[in-house]
Amino acid sequence: MSLSTKQVTFVAVMGALGNLLSIPALFGAGPIRLDLSSLPIMLAGVAGGPLIGCLTGFVSGLLASYVFGPAGHLGALGISLSIGKALHGLGVGLLSKALKPLEKRHQLPWSWVCGFFGLLPELLWITILFVLLVPLFIPNAMFMGWAAASLVSYKACLEVGAMALIAALLLENRGVRELMLSAVEA
């Protein structure tokens, strides 16, 4: 399937928004750094389906991939952050394609389900990353194993639960929903 110019532009804009929303988590101060970068991924996945959700997720993770990869401690594994975000977008898009939340009379709970449970592929990827890949490629890393995977997954579930509610509330608005749908139509 090829994407139209309109769809590529939508992916680029939503991906840029995802990178922008990740800045407080990447460069903020304090012990709790809220990462809101999944919000545009969920909107894109619900409105545009698996391919647009996946591509938006990958683009949304590029800044974090650089910060934790070449500029941080993960090196080449930094790209794994973009892969995880892409898997989240893919999961949201697949659930949205199956459940069709925007066609339901009461869209809010269905959109929330797509946004939240669409995180499952990324959670699996987080586990693979911290339990298998980091110890294999960075054996002296301090943050690895089941404890690291659990902490990152727990934080992700809390953030995504809240963002899924925000995305569902936004999509409940007819104007926002029509804007998203018009942006992803071929």
Number of helices: 9
Task: List how many beta strands DSSP finds.
Answer: 0
Low-confidence stretches: none
Please summarize the sheet with the most strands.
none
CATH architecture: Orthogonal Bundle
General shape: globular
Structural class: mainly alpha
Percentage of residues in DSSP E strands = under 5%
The rounded distance between the terminal residues' Cα atoms is 11 Å
Number of domains: 1
The CATH class turns out to be Mainly Alpha
How much helical structure, as a percent, in the residues?
over 70%
What CATH calls the topology is Arp2/3 complex 21 kDa subunit ARPC3
Model description:
It is a single chain. The chain is an all-alpha fold and 186 residues long. The chain has a single domain (5-184), classed as Arp2/3 complex 21 kDa subunit ARPC3 (Orthogonal Bundle), CATH 1.10.1760.20. Helices cover 76% and strands 0% of the residues. The chain has helices at 5-27, 38-48, 50-60, 62-68, 79-99, 107-117, 120-137, 145-172, 174-184. The longest helix is centred in the C-terminal third of the chain and has 28 residues, at 145-172. The termini are close together. The relative contact order is 0.15. The mean pLDDT is 92.
Spell out the blueprint of helices and strands.
Blueprint: H1 5-27, H2 38-48, H3 50-60, H4 62-68, H5 79-99, H6 107-117, H7 120-137, H8 145-172, H9 174-184
Helix pairs in contact: 1-2, 1-3, 1-4, 2-3, 2-5, 2-8, 2-9, 3-5, 4-5, 5-6, 5-7, 6-8, 7-8
